[in-house]
Amino acid sequence: MAAALKKSIPYQFKDPSLFETRSYVGGKWISGQAGKTFPVFDPEDDQEICQVADLDRSDVQKAIGAAQEAFVTYSKMPHRERRWLMRRWADLIKENREDIAALYTLELGKPWTESLGSVQYAIDFVDWFEGAVERTLGDTIPAARGNNRVLTILQPQGVVAAITPWNSPVAMVTRKVGAAIATGNTVVCKPAPETPLCATALAKLFERAGGPPGVFNVVTCSPESTPAVGEELCHNKLVKHLSFTGSTAVGRYLNRVCEDYQAD
C-alpha cells in the first residue's frame, strides 16, 4: 500500500506504491523494531511530505545479517542470471522514470526536466554494470615459462555498505548498488535522511525485477540516528567494503572509524 502524502502535489503517480516510507530488509518492508519515524520535507516550501521509518543500530545489524545470509547463495549465482537481473531492474526503472523523477523533485526540489535527466543518468549506471557482469570473469595471462598458464579469478567479497548523499538520491544509489550486485556482492544502502524516498522506490523495483531477498537492503534513518547507524556499517565485521559519497568532514570521520575497526 502506498504511503500517505501529507501535502498536495501537482502530480498524479502512475504507480502510487512506489511512494514507500518503510525500509527494505531481507526482502521485507519494515518500520523498524522501535517503530519510530522522522519527517521528510519539501525544500521548495518546507512543508512536511511524509514520515519515514527511523531505523536504529539493531535494525541495521539485522540488515547486515540478511545481506550476509543472501551473499552465501547470491555470490554463486551464474553470471548470466545476474545480468538478466540487472537488465530487468534497468527496464523497470525506465518504465517508471516519471514517477521516480516526481519523487526526486518532491524531496530534493530539483526542476522536473532536470530530475528526468538525473533519472536517466541513474539508468545509465545500471545499463553499464549489466555489461560489466561479463567483464569481471577474470583473465588468462601468459607466464614467463611457455608451459605454464596464469589465471586470475575475480571473486565477490561479501556485504557492501553504501552511504549516499542528499543531492544525488538516484544515481549514487544505482552507481554503488549496481557495481556491487553486478559482481556478486550484497548491499546495505543508507540514503541521506533528507532524500530517502528515491532509494526505497529503487528497492521496490529491484524486488519486482526478481532480486533475491537480502541482496539489496535499504535502511532509512533520521539525522539523530545516523551516527550510530553509520558506525555500525563501519564496525560490523560482516561488512567488507564501504562506499561513501558526501562531505569531506564525514568522509574523514568514516575513514577514522574504519581504521579503528581494521586495528581491532
From TrEMBL:
This is Aldehyde dehydrogenase domain-containing protein. Keywords: Oxidoreductase. PANTHER family: SUCCINATE-SEMIALDEHYDE DEHYDROGENASE, MITOCHONDRIAL. Residues 29-257 form the Aldehyde dehydrogenase domain. GO terms for molecular function: succinate-semialdehyde dehydrogenase (NAD+) activity. Pfam families: Aldedh (PF00171). It comes from the Eukaryota. Belongs to the aldehyde dehydrogenase family. One of its GO terms (biological process) is gamma-aminobutyric acid catabolic process.
